[in-house]
Design brief:
- The structure is a single chain.
- The protein is of the alpha+beta class.
- The protein has a single domain, classed as MutS, DNA mismatch repair protein, domain I, CATH 3.40.1170.
- It has helices at residues 24-33, 49-61, and strands at residues 8-12, 16-21, 40-41, 44-48, 66-70.
- It has a five-stranded mixed β-sheet with strand order 3-4-2-1-5.
- The longest helix is centred in the C-terminal third of the chain and has 13 residues, at 49-61.
- The radius of gyration is 12 Å and the shape is globular.
Length: 75
């Protein structure tokens, strides 16, 4: 079944990632799977590089759609 919205938009800043839940399913997944005291930044959850693979594996296992954006790093 095609979904109207991607569940998560993940923005890659190199060493940190911002996870933006775009759907009710995604917000529920955050509540059920991320630590209660995880760092929030506006509507996003902040995740470090060492945890992102495990978290996105969990999202995929829950059949959530993920869109990745990478912020260009200035040289």
């Amino acid at each position: 079944m095609a979904r109207d919205k991607v569940d998560f938009r993940i923005v890659d800043y190199g060493t940190i990632f911002l996870l933006y839940p775009n759907t009710r399913r995604a917000r529920r997944w955050v509540e059920e799977n991320l630590p209660e005291d995880h760092v929030r930044f506006a509507d996003a959850s902040l995740v470090g590089l060492r945890f992102i693979d495990e978290i996105t594996d969990g999202m995929r296992a829950a059949d959530l759609d993920i869109e990745f954006d990478r912020v260009p790093i200035a040289s």
